[in-house]
């Protein structure tokens, strides 16, 4: 494509090599960032649809990356190659890798949009549209990443206030907990914000999901993976408007009617309980394992049995049909939270392995 700059010939001639260098550098930057994102869509999420979106965007960028732009490249004379920042040398988790590269692509596309208007008017429109496509891709990918992580999750920790909160949570993460929900009804907002930031960082460092109890504003402030709502909290639909599609919303239920409503509300997962009496839900009658059996038969969403579950009664809950459980005191008040977590994870994994094996055998028998 021929570059056309609507200005005098002398100014045009002086500006053209600079424009070409800017456009070449940012086309490279956008294509590299998209390739990093594409690899996760392909190998991490196994998503053909998201991979195809990335591939299409890269190919579209390649069309604009002409020989004229490439020939203007001057890597030895580029002062930017000597610049670096300490944050570029480390990545704490997968989510940061994805977010950093989405920012890189979006910034590059904005540069291409503005300088492209000087090089060729159609570039401004093309890259503006592409930038909005990347915003949509980011929302869909992060939502997909969180939902995939949720489906693989089996042990969910709900915190309770303690002076050793970060240490207990990290021990549980080291033991293999999949989801952590920060729950604190009494501390002031400054304390909650500080705790939520710290726990969110820990969870993402260990590849776990981080949820906030009740508080949509707090979840947004610390970039949590979502919120968990009780029956007296914001309706799921309102929380969804505030959080968007990329974050998760959980909903507590205590009976079949609430379960049915939660399934229709747009929640991503459901809490089922309290299975046993627990001081965490003082005054609420235990549902017993009967409600666990009901959820196992009726729920079309991932669900976690919760309420007084510990190593002593876990097997009864699993026998009733639970595949996922949430605990509070069993870990938060344990003398060795990592060891208790490891035990719970091993029991859940063992049951899941048996159920997967039985499911495969049933398929084999049905085809004989």
TrEMBL record:
Residues 155-331 form the Thiamine phosphate synthase/TenI domain. GO terms for cellular component: cytoplasm. Residues 134-368 are annotated as: Thiamine-phosphate synthase. Keywords: Magnesium, Metal-binding, Thiamine biosynthesis, Transferase. Binds 1 Mg(2+) ion per subunit. CDD domains: TMP_TenI. 2-[(2R,5Z)-2-carboxy-4-methylthiazol-5(2H)-ylidene]ethyl phosphate binds at residues 278-280, 308. It holds the Pfam family TMP-TENI. InterPro entries: Aldolase_TIM, ThiamineP_synth_sf, ThiamineP_synth_TenI, ThiD2, TMP_synthase, TMP_synthase_cyanobac_bac. SUPFAM superfamilies: Thiamin phosphate synthase (SSF51391). One of its GO terms (biological process) is thiamine diphosphate biosynthetic process. 4-amino-2-methyl-5-(diphosphooxymethyl)pyrimidine binds at residues 181-185, 213, 252, 281. GO terms for molecular function: magnesium ion binding; thiamine-phosphate diphosphorylase activity. It catalyses: 4-methyl-5-(2-phosphooxyethyl)-thiazole + 4-amino-2-methyl-5-(diphosphooxymethyl)pyrimidine + H(+) = thiamine phosphate + diphosphate; 2-[(2R,5Z)-2-carboxy-4-methylthiazol-5(2H)-ylidene]ethyl phosphate + 4-amino-2-methyl-5-(diphosphooxymethyl)pyrimidine + 2 H(+) = thiamine phosphate + CO2 + diphosphate; 2-(2-carboxy-4-methylthiazol-5-yl)ethyl phosphate + 4-amino-2-methyl-5-(diphosphooxymethyl)pyrimidine + 2 H(+) = thiamine phosphate + CO2 + diphosphate. Its cofactor is Mg(2+). Condenses 4-methyl-5-(beta-hydroxyethyl)thiazole monophosphate (THZ-P) and 2-methyl-4-amino-5-hydroxymethyl pyrimidine pyrophosphate (HMP-PP) to form thiamine monophosphate (TMP). NCBIfam families: PRK02615.1 (NF002727), thiE (TIGR00693). This is Thiamine-phosphate synthase.
């Amino acid at each position: 494509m021929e570059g056309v700059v609507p200005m005098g010939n002398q100014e045009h001639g002086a500006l053209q090599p600079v424009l070409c260098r800017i456009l070449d550098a940012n086309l490279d930057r956008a294509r590299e960032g998209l390739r990093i994102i594409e690899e996760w869509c392909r190998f991490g999420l196994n998503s053909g649809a998201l991979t195809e979106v990335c591939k299409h965007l890269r190919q579209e960028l390649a069309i604009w990356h002409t020989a004229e732009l490439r020939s203007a490249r001057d890597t030895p004379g580029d002062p930017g190659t000597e610049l670096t920042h300490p944050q570029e040398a480390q990545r704490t988790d997968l989510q940061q890798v994805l977010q950093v590269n989405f920012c890189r692509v979006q910034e590059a596309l904005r540069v291409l949009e503005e300088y492209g208007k000087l090089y060729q008017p159609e570039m401004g429109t093309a890259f503006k549209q592409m930038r909005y496509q990347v915003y949509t891709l980011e929302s869909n990918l992060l939502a997909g990443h969180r939902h995939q992580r949720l489906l693989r999750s089996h042990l969910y920790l709900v915190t309770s206030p303690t002076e050793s909160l970060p240490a207990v949570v990290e021990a549980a993460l080291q033991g293999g907990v999949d989801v952590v929900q920060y729950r604190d009804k009494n501390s002031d907002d400054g304390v909650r914000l500080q705790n939520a930031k710290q726990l969110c960082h820990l969870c993402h460092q260990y590849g776990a999901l981080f949820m906030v109890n009740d508080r949509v504003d707090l979840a947004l402030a610390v970039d949590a993976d979502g919120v968990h709502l009780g029956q007296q909290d914001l309706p799921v639909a309102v929380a969804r408007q505030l959080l968007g599609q990329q974050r998760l919303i959980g909903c507590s239920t205590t009976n079949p009617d609430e379960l049915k409503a939660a399934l229709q509300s747009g929640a991503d997962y459901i809490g089922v309980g309290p299975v046993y009496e627990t001081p965490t839900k003082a005054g609420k009658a235990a549902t017993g394992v009967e409600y666990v059996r009901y959820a196992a038969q009726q729920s079309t969403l991932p669900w976690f049995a919760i309420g007084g579950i510990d190593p002593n009664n876990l097997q009864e809950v699993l026998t009733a049909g639970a595949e996922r459980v949430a605990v509070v005191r069993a870990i938060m008040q344990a003398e060795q939270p990592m060891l208790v977590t490891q035990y719970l994870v091993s029991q859940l994994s063992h049951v899941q392995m048996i159920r997967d094996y039985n499911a495969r055998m049933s398929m084999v028998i049905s085809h004989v």
